[in-house]
Amino acid sequence: MMDIMQKILAFVSLFCAFIFSGCQTTGGSPNSGRNTAAILGAIAGGIAGNNMGDGSDTNVVAGAIIGGVLGGMAGQQYDRRREALEAAEAQRQYEYEQEVREQQKLEKEIETLEVQRARDAIANTATESDVAAAEREAARVEAELAKKQKAFEASQERARRIQEAQQRIAQAQRELEELKARESGQY
User: Fold this and answer.
1) Prediction pTM value
2) Domain that holds residue 150
3) Do 145 and 66 belong to one domain?
């Protein structure tokens, strides 16, 4: 039994070397299913050739060759199906991205048209007094914003000064405690 396994392993090693040398010239990874299936087929064929015949080297080699060829053919079909699925998925992804871009473009056009329509509606009905009223309201809101910003900045400055004072108090208390400890001889 050990002699048979050694024969199968030797043949499969040669078969693998043959397959992988072909991979280097064809690019390698696109045929990974074919190569894997060919190797597994060669192993299974070698074992079957040994078990079906008288265990001679010829039966083992013939079984490994037939198994390798059949496995390689099956693996090649697998590779083709996988490549076709990957290509179809890439096409679907491309079409989806195109659709998203078109949808975004359409939404932008709709938004632009709505803004233009609103501007046109205002232009058709607005008077000089409407413009003056809008400008007064804008000035009022801007003044209110400036007042609130100034108040906010002042409150932030007060908070900063309070924090600084608290830090100075904490530092002075630590120094006072250290001085008391030295005076009482604890250091």
Assistant:
1) 0.42
2) 133-183
3) no
